[in-house]
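F.,

This is the one I mentioned.
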């Protein structure tokens, strides 16, 4: 899980397991992607480099996929605000959200949107949770 894709998958799996462990107590978890946001993290990148980055991402998309573009900070915050304040907890618990909705489960390789079925797998989520406990030397009820 050393790539950004692996990190996103780990976040989804963690939310799936956390939600399963705590929903009976009224605590829900979801994972989300705010989008490609133009923030201070890219302050040292020239406009040309940023344009090339987006062009490279779009070039790697399958035919017919919607192009990726930069979001403003408020646009990027929208899914977090939606999930926290608007969405029904039952509909987003143990799910992956993007663009203010629950993401579609996709199997097409290379897509930069949606969620892969394995990222929502409860058995994988439980295995990642156990491995995480092992790595940090703690057990969480």
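My design for it:
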């Amino acid at each position: 899980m050393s790539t950004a894709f692996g990190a996103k998958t780990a976040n989804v799996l963690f939310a799936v397991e956390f939600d399963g462990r705590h929903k009976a107590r009224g605590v829900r978890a979801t994972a989300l992607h705010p989008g490609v946001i133009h923030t201070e993290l890219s302050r040292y990148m020239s406009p040309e480099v940023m344009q090339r980055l987006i062009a490279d991402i779009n070039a790697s998309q399958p035919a017919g996929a919607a192009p990726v573009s930069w979001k403003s900070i408020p646009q990027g915050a929208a899914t977090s605000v939606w999930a926290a304040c608007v969405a029904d907890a039952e509909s987003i618990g143990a799910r992956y959200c993007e663009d203010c909705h629950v993401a579609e489960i996709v199997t097409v390789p290379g897509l930069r949107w949606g969620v892969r079925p394995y990222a929502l797998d409860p058995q994988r989520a439980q295995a990642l949770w156990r491995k995480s406990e092992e790595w940090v030397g703690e057990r969480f009820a």
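The chain has one domain: 4-136.

Talk soon.
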